[in-house]
């Protein structure tokens, strides 16, 4: 989880909400040591950690970013008051990966003028929930999924309960079916975000695979 909370009180809420969700049975019972958090990180330190993660050749990786962002030739995230990270630096770090970006994608002259070049570029059945979660994740086809809190040119709204999209995404992941796929959770979250009269329209880049091959975000314990 990566966050930049300068002027955005909801970012810390997002990070806590994601942590609580992933540690829960609905979120797959991730272990504490599997969850890493960076709040207003130094770019060099973050990139170093990302390289270590890639070297580990993980079966499944989820990256969430909450905070300030802008759109140049690609999405650029502000890590702190002076460091930025291009979205492509978060691509293909694991065999199966889900990236969630709850930030603005408004066009920025600052980025479009070429600054990007300086940015570097309990148990169920016979299996416990975590075991069941792992089996389902490994069933999914290798893929790269991207979720965005808003369209290009729009802004993502911050609230006292966290990011408008992130809050709805977590709620949507706690579904009534055995598994909640990333696509299903995103669709429900997007509908709820728009229905809440926020002027943002979430988008997703999800492969058109069979449902059994899709990545999941939530699981019913």
Would you mind describing this structure in some detail?
The protein has helices spanning 10-23, 43-55, 109-112, 129-139, 164-173, 182-195, and strands at residues 2-3, 38-39, 61-67, 69-71, 75-78, 84-86, 96-103, 123-124, 127-128, 143-148, 158-159, 162-163, 179-181, 203-205, 216-219. The chain has a single domain, classed as Rossmann fold, CATH 3.40.50.1460. The model is unreliable at 118-124 (pLDDT under 50). It has a six-stranded mixed sheet with strand order 2-1-3-7-10-14, covered by helices on one side. Helix content is 30%, strand content 24%. Helix 5 packs across helix 6. With 221 residues, it is of the alpha/beta class.
Set down the secondary structure blueprint:
Layout (H helix, E strand, L loop, with lengths): L1 E2 L6 H14 L14 E2 L3 H13 L5 E7 L1 E3 L3 E4 L5 E3 L9 E8 L5 H4 L10 E2 L2 E2 H11 L3 E6 L9 E2 L2 E2 H10 L5 E3 H14 L7 E3 L10 E4 L2
Parallel strand pairs: 1-2, 1-3, 3-7, 7-10
Antiparallel strand pairs: 4-5, 5-6, 8-9, 10-14, 11-12, 13-15
Helix pairs in contact: 5-6
Keywords:
six-stranded mixed sheet, 6 helices, 221 residues, alpha/beta, single chain, Rossmann fold
């Amino acid at each position: 989880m990566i966050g930049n909370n300068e002027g955005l009180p909801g970012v810390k809420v997002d990070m806590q909400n994601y942590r609580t969700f992933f540690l829960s049975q609905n979120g797959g019972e991730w272990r504490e040591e599997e969850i890493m958090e960076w709040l207003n990180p130094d770019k060099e330190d973050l990139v170093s950690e990302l390289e270590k993660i890639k070297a580990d050749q993980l079966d499944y990786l989820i990256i969430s970013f909450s905070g300030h962002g802008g759109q140049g030739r690609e999405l650029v995230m502000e890590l702190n008051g002076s460091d930025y990270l291009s979205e492509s630096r978060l691509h293909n770090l694991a065999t199966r990966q889900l990236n969630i970006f709850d930030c603005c994608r408004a066009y920025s002259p600052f980025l479009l003028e070429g600054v990007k070049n300086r940015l570097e570029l309990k148990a169920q059945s016979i299996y416990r929930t975590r075991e069941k979660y792992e089996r389902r994740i490994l069933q999914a086809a290798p893929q790269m999924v991207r979720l965005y809190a808003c369209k290009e040119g729009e802004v993502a709204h911050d609230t006292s309960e966290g990011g408008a999209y992130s809050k709805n995404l977590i709620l949507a992941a706690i579904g009534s079916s055995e598994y909640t796929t990333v696509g299903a959770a995103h669709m429900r979250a997007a509908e709820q975000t728009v229905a809440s009269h926020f002027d943002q329209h979430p988008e997703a880049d999800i492969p058109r695979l069979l449902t059994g091959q899709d990545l999941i975000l939530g699981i019913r314990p």
